[in-house]
Input
Amino acid sequence: MSKRRKHSWPQPLKGAESRLWYGGDYNPDQWPEEVWDDDIRLMKKAGVNLVSVGIFSWAKIEPEEGKYDFDWLDRAIDKLGKAGIAVDLASATASPPMWLTQAHPEVLWKDERGDTVWPGAREHWRPTSPVFREYALNLCRRMAEHYKGNPYVVAWHVSNEYGCHNRFDYSDDAMRAFQKWCKKRYKTIDAVNEAWGTAFWAQHMNDFSEIIPPRYIGDGNFMNPGKLLDYKRFSSDVLKEFYIAERDVLESITPGLPLTTNFMVSAGGSMLDYDDWGAEVDFVSNDHYFTPGEAHFDEVAYAASLMDGISRKEPWFQMEHSTSAVNWRPINYRAEPGSVVRDSLAQVAMGADAICYFQWRQSKAGAEKWHSSMVPHAGEDSQIFRDVCELGADLGRLSDEGLMGTKTVKSKVAVVFDYESQWATEYTANPTQQVNHWTEPLDWFRALADNGITADVVPVRSDWDSYEIAVLPCVYMMSEETSRRVREFVANGGKLFVTYYTGLGDENDHIWLGGYPGSIRDVVGVRVEEFAPMGNDMPGALDHLDLDNGTVAHDFADVITSTADTSTVLASYKAERWTGMNEVPAIVANGYGDGRTVYVGCRLGRQGLAKSLPAMLGSMGLSDLAGDGRVLRVERADAAAANHFEFVFNRTHEPVTVDVEGEAIAASLAHVDDGRATIDPTGVVVLRR
Ligand code: GLA
Output
C-alpha cells in the first residue's frame, strides 16, 4: 500500500463560508439551454451549493479528434458559479466517443473468451491500452489547461466509478501488463509458481511470458485460485495506475485543486480494493445505492461507517446516492418515504461532509430515464423535490450549528472488513458457495446495533487494534502480519471476536496447517479439524444445527475438536447422533494474555448473533455496553468537544420514544419534548449536546 496523500477538501467559493456540500451529478448537456435557468432556480430553492459536471461529456467536449468545444461547458459553469454553486469538474474520460473507438478498436476491452466489448454503453475501454491512455491523458490536459484558475471549479472528479463495467479485461494488452505486475510483485517466476501452487495440475511456468490472464477454461472447470486472486489484485492496481496517471496530469496543471474519484463501497461491493485506493485521493468519495427491504437503513449506516474507516475518519464525500428507485435492479423498488433525509443524515452522522445524488434532473431519454433524481419527471411539485428541499435546509442548519470540523466519535467496537478475504471467499471451489466474507461483517454490525451498540466498520489495514473490542468476521485471509497483530492485541488486553472462516489462508491463500484457524489457534483456544457446511440442495443432508442457547446455525459450522484449558464453552450443538455434531462446542470464550476472545464457530446470522451477544459480552466483562437496539445513535464531535452532536435514527417500522440529551437542531418524522424523542419509522433527530 502506498503512502497516503494528505487529506484536502474542496474549498468554498470566494466570499462564501465553509458549509456541508450539497448537490448532485448535473448533466446540462442532456437539456436545451432554456432548462438551465430553471435548474439554477431550483438548485437555489433546494439549497444546492455544488454539482458534478461533465462526467460523460467527452463526445460533446471533443466532438472530433483534436477539435474542442468548451463553450457550452463554460456557459454552464459560469451560470452555476455566478449563482454561488461550486463545480466538481470531471476529467470527462469515463466514456470515450464513437470516433475514437471507430479509429482505434484496440482500446476496447475483451471478455474472458476474447470477445470484444463494443461501444453502446460506457466504460468500453481497457486501462492497459497505451492508445487509450494517450487520448484520455490528452483530454485531462486540455480540461486542466482550459479550466485552470476557473474560480468556480473547486475539485476534480477523475473519470467515474473505475471498474464498474471494465474491471476485468482479458486482452493481450492486459496479458502483458499482468506479466509485468507479476514480475514486480514476485521478482522470479519460481516465486509465482510457489504463490499459485502450480505444482498442482501441471501448471508450472518457466518464464513470465507464460503467464496469461484467467481466460475462459470451459464451464465447470476451476481456475487456479492463486492466479484468480492475483488477477483481482492486478485489476484493482491497473485501474488505480490509470487513475494516478490522469490525476497526475490534472495536478501538474492545477496544483492544489483537490482530486477524487468516486468509489462504490457498499456492504456487498468488492470490485476494487478501495482501502488501497483511499491512499491515492485527496478526499474519498462514494457512490452508494440502498438495498431495498429490511436491511435498507442498517446497510446505509454500515457502508457509510466503512467509508469513514477507509477515510481514516477524515471528512468524506457522498458523491452519489438515489432519492428513490434506481434503474438497474430487476425490480426497482421505491425508497421508503422519509429516506431522502434519513439516509443522507446517516451518511453525515458517519462522517460525510458532502451529500450528493445521481442525478440533479431526471433524464427524459437514455438508459437512465427511469432512475430517480433530485428533480423527478413530475417536476418541482413533487414529494421528492420537497424532500430534497427539506434535506437542503437541514444540511444548512447543521452547517450553521458548526458540524463541519467535527468527526465521527470513535466507537468502542471495530468490525473488520477485508477486500482480499472477500475476493478469496468468492472462489467457486471452496467448502461452500453459501459463505463469503461480506455478509458476516454486516451481520455483526446489525447484531451489535440490535444490542444498542454502534460499531465502526474498519478495513483490516487500519487501526482496528486500537479499539477496545474488535470483531474478525470471516476474515479468511490472514497474513503473518495480521496474525501478529491479533496476538499482540489480545495479549495486551484487547477483546476479540473471531468467527468461523477466519484465518484459514495466508496472503497467498495457502492454508495454515495443523487445524484451523491455523495462525491464531492458541489465541482463540480452539482447534477445528473439519467443517460441516449445511444446505438444502441435497435431500437429507445437514441443513441446520440447533445450539443450546436457543439459536440456530445455517450454512456453516466448524467441527471444533478441542478447546484450550483456559477456555469456556458458551454454547454447543444439540443434534442427532448421526450428524457427529451433538455437544460439539459452537461458541467458545478464551483468555489469552491480558485479553479475552470469543470464537463463534458457525453462521448464526444477524438474529442468532444478536441473541448470543449478551452472554458473549458478559464473558468479556462488557455487559454494560448494551443499550436500546430500536435506535442507532451516532456522535460527531471536534477535538475539544466544544461542538458535540448526536444523531438518533429509528431502526424499526414502529414509532419509538427514547431519552435524548441536548437541544434538537434537526428532526425529520420526529419531535423532541422535554428530553424525550418520539421518532417515526424512517425518522431521525439530531441533537447538539
Ligand atoms: C453509477 C454511475 C452514475 C449512474 C448511477 C445510477 O453510480 O456513476 O453515472 O449511472 O450509477 O445508479
User: Anything to note?
Assistant: The first helix runs from residue 33 to 46. The chain has a mean pLDDT of 97. The longest strand covers residues 676-688.
